[in-house]
């Protein structure tokens, strides 16, 4: 990621005023990218004895701000979308 962590892109749909998430990453926050909608995937932890327990694969979400017109709006994006946005901005 470049550009001092600032991603600029014109979002099609503006983010609704999502409350600032706090606490554990397993609760409260909707674990979705505001741009591509990527969310948690389900899978198994498999031990050496092949005992399977359920787990969740979380997307790498980061809180960033994007330039919408003239305003900076805080959004939650996956790192893939932040990278794409920073490439489109230049
Ligand atoms: Zn995304």
Structural key phrases:
90 residues; mainly beta; Ribosomal Protein L24e, Chain: T; two-stranded antiparallel ribbon; two-stranded antiparallel sheet; 1 helix; elongated; binds zinc ion
Describe the structure.
It is a single chain. It is built from one helix and four strands, in the order ββββα. It has one helix at 79-89; strands at residues 41-46, 52-57, 61-68, 71-78. The protein has 90 residues and is mostly beta strands. The protein has a domain at 30-90: Ribosomal protein L28/L24 (Ribosomal Protein L24e, Chain: T). The chain has a two-stranded antiparallel ribbon. 12% of the residues lie in helices and 31% in strands. The model is unreliable at 10-15 and 17-25 (pLDDT under 50). Zinc ion (ZN) binds at residues 33, 35-36, 38, 77-78, 80-81.
